[in-house]
Input
Amino acid sequence: MTDATVAEAPAAPSTRSAGRFLYISGVVLLCAWVLVPIYFLLVNTLSSPDTVNSFPKPLFPEFDFGSLAFFAQFAGMLTALKNSVLTAGMTMIMSILIGAPAGYALSRFDFRGKELFRLLILLTRAFPLPLLALPLAVMFIQTGLDDTTFGLALVHTTLAIPFAVLITFSLFSGIPLELEEAAWTLGCTRLTAFTKVVLPLILPGITASAIFAFVISWNEVFAAAVLTIENRTLTAFLLQNLDTSPLHLKFAGGFILVVPALIFIFAVRKYLFAMWGIANR
Amino acid sequence: MAEIQIKNVAKKFGAYQALHDINLTIADQEFMVLLGASGCGKTTLLRIICGLETATEGEVWIGGRRVDHLAPKDRGIAMVFQNYAVFPHLTVFENIGFGLRMQKLPDDEVRRRVERVASLMHIEMLLKRYSGELSGGQRQRVAVARALAMEPDVILMDEPLSNLDALLRMEMRAELKGVLAESKTTAVYVTHDQVEAMSMADRISVMHQGEIVQAASPIEVYRNPAAEFVASFIGNPPMNFLRAEAAGDGKWSVAGNVIDGPRYGKSPLQFAIRPEDMQPAGDGLEAKVKIVEPLGAHLLVTCEVNGTLFRAVLDSDMEVKRGDMLTLAPQTDRVRWFDPETTLAVA
Output
């Protein structure tokens, strides 16, 4: 009896430390998976065009803005950047204007087919974009929406809405109905209770969901490439010039694309958990 | 100041009938407690008075004015919620002043009224804090202060003390009773806690399965329960019941004893007695002791009379142990009788 416990005692820490080793190496591996490519992107963007095109590649950035300057001067690049910002901005506004009321309705009202509706929202993401993009292109040409940032923003809005609805749904659900009811008993109408109590409480979350919509549009390339020709967004423009442009332009373009998305997602990370029903506070 | 009249109110949630034809008048400045187990419809009734729920049928009148078609804000009520519902994005001051600001009262009037109710509820030092920086008890005080600041005709409270710990609850109970009596407001208070109901109410409405079984003063509800449900719900431990067979001419045979009772056409009846209304004596009910629980002030003895569980509260000096036989004499003026078919009291 005593022997057994003595024998077991040293064994336990060693299995624990082995598990700990596995855990840490797993974390390191996963971080490297994400961080190493981003690091190389950063190194090559902040190096001069000559260094980027030579071999071996540098391991540390030389903080030379030659590549970025070349990127800025490349014909059409700044227009593409502007188009990207415009499209993403419109996507952000439209997806919140449509998504937030839907999220509120889902969280506060009971209606027939509510569960089905929630499922259908997600289902819009089940169709591959190429399947939708081609008929859309035809329709856009018929209505004159083709090759406009607004038309593209419409498509991006449909992509972003499911997330906007689900994020705001979970935000609204996180606000006890009693708070609204208390406001009603204290002299508020449904509308003033919303603006004075609910809105201030969910504003950070709404911002997060808006930024997420921005990033979705910002990163989207397929619909942008199919639906626009002259007014290309940055992603579509880079894709178009992928085989003809020099290496340092690709790096600089990639970097410009990745950075805002990264910063935004990092800023709103806690609200993205909210979308999956994990506590949002 | 206002009287509340509830006339033939019924509520259905889909096929489920939550309230059946409720009629109740609550007098001006009365403290009315709606008491019942969870799911009995007491909160639904409160929310119908408040206007957060609409009745399927019936009318609600407050202060001689029909209000069932009005929004909560137009009924002259204020409500205290179970989870307090203190707005987290506002300071305590702005929380208490919220309703006053909605009425567009001038700043100095808002300040005057907020400070008055804050001192009434002893939270003057918390006015600059946010709800996240308050304890449960303090939030409770803010919620009550916010309702009082409205100077409503009627104040509605939905289990306001149920989230507090036992000691704090006892303290708040007395304080709330004092503050409300002072404010001369009609109060409707929902609780499932009979001690809270007994200690605070002017009148208790005992609710069961969507109906008001009895509406009477606490002592009346305790001494003369209108139905078996009330008798077994109120009182801790609850009333004891024994089967009584007619023995002719107003006499009833209870566990081998013949006891004076009502003249009643039907047999059997239920004989009922509170645990504290019995004394050990030479003559009475034969009880076999099963469990003895010394509670300090008195002795709670669970025994068996004629195969039925039976509780008695005895003097703590009594020496009783498991397996003893007791002879318990019921105090005759405290005996109550119920018809087992209708479950209603028999006079």
Q: What stands out?
A: The helical segments of chain B are 42-50, 92-102, 107-120, 136-149, 166-183, 194-200, 218-223, 228-233. Chain B has eight helices and 20 strands.
